[in-house]
Structures are given as structure tokens and as C-alpha cells.
Amino acid sequence: MARQIIKRSRKTGMPPGSLVHIGRERTEKSRVSLVDYAEGHFEERAVPSVDELAPYIGKPSVTWIDVVGIHEPDLIGEVGRCFGIHPLLMEDIMNTTQRPKIDDLGKYICVILKVIAFDEQARELRFEQLSLVFSDDVVLSFQESESGIFKQLRERIRNDLGRIRRMGTDYLVYSLMDAVVDHYFVVMEKMGEKIDDLEDEVVANPRRETLRSVQRIRDEILLVRRSVWPLREVVSLLERAESPLIDKTSAIYFRDVYEHTIQVMDTVDTYRDILSGMFDIYLSSVSNRLNEVMKVLTIIATVFMPLTFLAGVYGMNFEYMPELKWRYGYFLIWGVMIVIALAMLACFRKRKWI
Fold first, then answer.
1. Residue ranges matching CATH 1.20.58.340 in the chain
2. Greater confidence, 310 or 188?
3. At 315, phi and psi to the nearest 5?
């Protein structure tokens, strides 16, 4: 997996709350969309200007504002000022190196987590940050790019499927987090397929490329663990939260997300143990192949030792040697050498050395 260095030193010396994007360089323009709904009401549209969001503040309906692209400080700053979000929180939203966490600031709660997707073309994982800020009437979601994992959720809201149109912002936050965590299982299935293929390759035909592939997947699994492990605490705090923004009836839903997170962590730990074992299997396979080669070379050298001795003896330049002028001496030596070689090979096979 290609590593991209994200430099946090760009913020050195700046005052707290300075909006500086820390993450992958992006050139596409940020987009803002809005979904406003209630039990008998639904509205969905793109928002070309942040000023158009002001009328939705304080409405009795639930307003979901989705910002795709957090690399434009001016846009992110306007959204933060429109909804009165603390500058330090907006600074964290633009810093994609944040670990999953939760901040309860009374009037609103901020949840930061990681979206993990499997890139089919590059055959590697892609990690992006998702920030959710919600009050009693508004949910703000900040994505690095369009992940597509909320498509089904939008369809449920649009077609009034399930209970989401009759619930509040806390249920919408649960639905967003549930979509992210459920997508972890898709990623884990893809990683499981890669690990199964590597297991067969490590046993059948271990190569240096195989070892590098194992190392890449191991690094990806470690990144997944760093992204999922802190999320357990985040979801647990939401489940036990005493905030008026979270209804008591929503606790069971956040508990469901917590259980799914535990299942993902169990899978991650299992894969990590399998990958650690793959290194031992690789070394054993390479060692066995080397032993097979050395055994063949040793057998060849052992067979040729007496033959080399006979050839050396009869290769000496003495004038008087037995069989030196005998007519069948050459054929006799060949016969003796062949018999010795065959006898040694038969002995090796009897002892199951070959």
C-alpha cells in the first residue's frame, strides 16, 4: 500500500482554531447537499451557497447537511459560523489525522470516525475521515470525498422506509454510523479473500513478492485496528450519554453498533494472528525448499566422492600400475564406478533419504 506523508507541520506557529486542511491533496470542488424531512415532509437538494442553510436552523424537522470535500477552508469556515460550531472543532474536522473520538459541547455533539473502503483497482484499502456534528434539529456530516456508503440511507429517507422519518437527529446519526460500521464487514470479507489467496501461495510457492504482499496486508490490518479500536469507546459513550440530544430509546441502537464494532475487532485480531503465522509458514517453506536442494546436492557429492577417488588413483602418472596396460582395464573401472554409484543410491533409498 502506497504511503502518503501527511505533514502536520503546516500548522506550526498558527493560532488555535486556524482552518488548515491536513490530508491528501485534492483538486475537486467541495459540494454541499441538504435533506430536510419529517413524518409527512421531505426535501432534498444541492446547496450552492452556505447562506441558503440559515432558514433551516431551528426548524421542527430534521435537517441533514452533507459536505463532501473538507479541503476548502473558506467553505468549512462558513458552515461552522452559520451553525455556531466552535473553531477548535472545525479545526479538528479539517485535520484528517484525527483518531475516532467524541466531543460533547452541550448544544451539539461531534463524532469523528474513519470510513474504510476497498479499492478494487489498486486492490488496497482507502481510509478517509467522517465527522458528524448534530444538535436537536440539524446533523452535519463532513466527508473527504463521496464514498457512496450513504446511498441506501438516502433511499430509505426518500421513500419513507423504516422508522427514520419519525425519529430525531440521534437516530440519523446512528444510521450514518451503522452504515459506516456495516461497510467494515464488506472490507473484512475482501481482506479475508486476499489472505486466503496468500495462504495458498505461501504454502505452495513462497517468493519474495509473496512476503511483501503479506507485509502490505499486515500494515493495512494494523491501520484498520487503529481506526476501529477507539470507535468502541465512542459508541459506548453515545450509548450511555446523559445528553438531552440523545433519546433513551436510541441507546439500544447505539448498543447494536457497539456489538458490530466488537465483531469487526474480533475479525481484525483473527486476521492479524493469521498474518503473523504466515511469516512463520513462509520461513518454514523457504527453509524446507533449501533443505531439499541441499539434500540433492549432498547426495550427488556423496555419490561422486568414491568415484572421484578411483578416478584420482588411476589418473596418477606412475609407469608401473596394475591394470594400466590391461586391455579391459578402462571398462572394468567404469563398471566398478557404476556399481558403487548404484549401490549407494539403493542404500540411500532404503534409509528413505531420497
1. 292-350
2. 188
3. -95, 0
In percent, the amount of the chain with pLDDT more than 90 equals 37
Across residues 218-235, what is the average pLDDT?
A: 91
**Homologous superfamily of domain range 292-350:** Magnesium transport protein CorA, transmembrane region (1.20.58.340)
Q: What value does the mean pLDDT take over residues 83-89?
A: 90
pLDDT of residue 300: 85
227 in Cβ contact with 116 (< 8 Å)? yes
Beta bridge partners of 117: 126
- Residue ranges of the chain assigned to CATH 3.30.460.20: 8-284
Residue 3 pLDDT? 47
Q: What is the pLDDT of residues 238-267, one digit of tens each?
A: 888 788 888 888 888 999 999 999 999 999
Residue indicated by cell numbers 447562506: 51
- Residue 187 reports pLDDT greater than 80: yes
Distance CA 135, CA 244 (A): 10
| DSSP string across 259-321 | HHHHHHHHHHHHHHHHHHHHHHHHHHHHHHHHHHHHHHHHHHHHHHHHHHHHHHHTTS--SS-
DSSP state of 84: T
Name the CATH superfamily, with its identifier, for domain 8-284. Answer: CorA soluble domain-like (3.30.460.20)
d(CA 233, CA 99): 12
And the C-alpha cell for 13? 506557529
Strand order from edge to edge, sheet including 109-119: 41-46, 31-38, 62-68, 138-143, 124-134, 109-119, 101-104
Q: How many CB atoms lie within 10 A of CB 193?
A: 11
